[in-house]
Amino acid sequence: MESSSASNEEVTAVPASWNFEPNETLLGLMALSVRGVLARIKAEMVAGGGGGRPVIPMGHGDPSAFPCFRTAPEAVDAVAGALQSGEYNSYSTCVGLEPARRSVARYLSRDLPYELSPDDVYLTNGGAQAIEIVCSALARPGANILLPRPGYKLYEARAVFSGMEARYFDLVPGEGWEVDTDSVRALADKNTVAVVIINPGNPCGNVYSYEHLAKVAETARKLGVFVVADEAYAHLTFGERRFVPMGVFGAVAPVITLGSISKRWLVPGWRLGWIATSDPSGVFQRTKVASSIKTYHYICSDPTTFVQGAVPNLLENTSEEFFRRNIRTLKESADMCWEKLKGVNGIACPSRPMGSMFVMVKLDLSCLQGIEDDMDFCCRLAKEESVVVLPGRVVGCEDWLRITFAIDPSSLEDGLDRLRSFCSRHSKPAAQGSAASVV
Ligand SMILES: Cc1ncc(COP(=O)(O)O)c(C=O)c1O
């Protein structure tokens, strides 16, 4: 009796403390998350009442809620067909179903000087998991990776979380946000494993020329580092430059390409992406990069099997008209954004967007009264005008803003007008009527 009540006490007694310590590195990564910061701005807007007007979301990278950015019916049919077939209810193979990998290889090879094989392709839960896997596979103690600034901070989060150092090279605003290859050379050392480029660019809306990509590949080759090419916005170009995949230069320096259906098909919620290796010289096999990527797939979750089952039909049957229509809408929105931003006090736009869904603009706080920084600007804009834009610090540039123009045109026009009246209301008297000087 006695011994049983003692053991009950032991079970029910509350310990003085729990053996958990928060991982401060992990908690600190919240500041790098676009969605985390946007949620914070929206929360402040709700608390401030938001002025009762409809919210204009110009901070996101997901236009799929707008009727003008609905996905293609062929894509919906592909998923519905896969689901109804009953053939995709099982776990998939770890690297992805072979027919889906074959169709991604075929799709990417259309723009390459050689053919990728299904074994060069690994399917992922969207581009985000592709970033996680590549950072994990490349990391080793002491390694570093070179990232663009401004850029997509998920790379830093995943690199740091994998124990790798993130080093930033600059993109040059006045030169179409091209990579400053001198700054890449200055940062690299014997522990540098890769250089990341994002083309078309988030957050800059850049589209790199063939010549510029060749220069980046040549720089990587001389440094002995791989190229990680983030092509989440592949083919979303509307200026005079066409999209050139980095894999074209795979023989110059080995290229790991990350892609997904999220942006081109406007279905980020379907969570289907890929890693593709363009490496005709077989470096990734010899250095075990390929087996590291493959092994990582064995210890993480796969994209939903029925979405994988839909991939061949989705890639092969989507009409060109769907893509053309989206590009037309994006071009009209980008043009409107560029024109309307020109006369806004305290804001300068150094480079006309030519691709993706975003433009970067610089704040000139000396023209604006009572605005402390980009975060303060975004919180007040949200509170006073119900317009949400992304503070530049989330993409590596304080006192800049990232504006998304991929929303329906009438909301965009309204949002840009509200932005203008916000800036004019907060302008210093002397600054009225003058836009910030271009960087
Ligand atoms: C540059 C870049 N890479 C990768 C991703 C992640 O892609 P996904 O939405 O397919 O996970 C995004 C998403 O916004 C992105 O902007």
From TrEMBL:
<dbReference type="GO" id="GO:0033855">
    <property type="term" value="F:nicotianamine aminotransferase activity"/>
</dbReference>
<dbReference type="InterPro" id="IPR015422">
    <property type="entry name" value="PyrdxlP-dep_Trfase_small"/>
</dbReference>
<dbReference type="InterPro" id="IPR004839">
    <property type="entry name" value="Aminotransferase_I/II_large"/>
</dbReference>
<dbReference type="GO" id="GO:0030170">
    <property type="term" value="F:pyridoxal phosphate binding"/>
</dbReference>
<keyword id="KW-0663">Pyridoxal phosphate</keyword>
<dbReference type="Pfam" id="PF00155">
    <property type="entry name" value="Aminotran_1_2"/>
</dbReference>
<dbReference type="GO" id="GO:0006572">
    <property type="term" value="P:L-tyrosine catabolic process"/>
</dbReference>
<dbReference type="InterPro" id="IPR005958">
    <property type="entry name" value="TyrNic_aminoTrfase"/>
</dbReference>
<feature type="domain" description="Aminotransferase class I/classII large">
    <location>
        <begin position="55"/>
        <end position="419"/>
    </location>
</feature>
<dbReference type="InterPro" id="IPR015421">
    <property type="entry name" value="PyrdxlP-dep_Trfase_major"/>
</dbReference>
<feature type="modified residue" description="N6-(pyridoxal phosphate)lysine">
    <location>
        <position position="263"/>
    </location>
</feature>
<protein>
    <recommendedName>
        <fullName>nicotianamine aminotransferase</fullName>
        <ecNumber>2.6.1.80</ecNumber>
    </recommendedName>
</protein>
<comment type="similarity">
    <text>Belongs to the class-I pyridoxal-phosphate-dependent aminotransferase family.</text>
</comment>
<dbReference type="GO" id="GO:0004838">
    <property type="term" value="F:L-tyrosine-2-oxoglutarate transaminase activity"/>
</dbReference>
<dbReference type="InterPro" id="IPR004838">
    <property type="entry name" value="NHTrfase_class1_PyrdxlP-BS"/>
</dbReference>
<dbReference type="InterPro" id="IPR015424">
    <property type="entry name" value="PyrdxlP-dep_Trfase"/>
</dbReference>
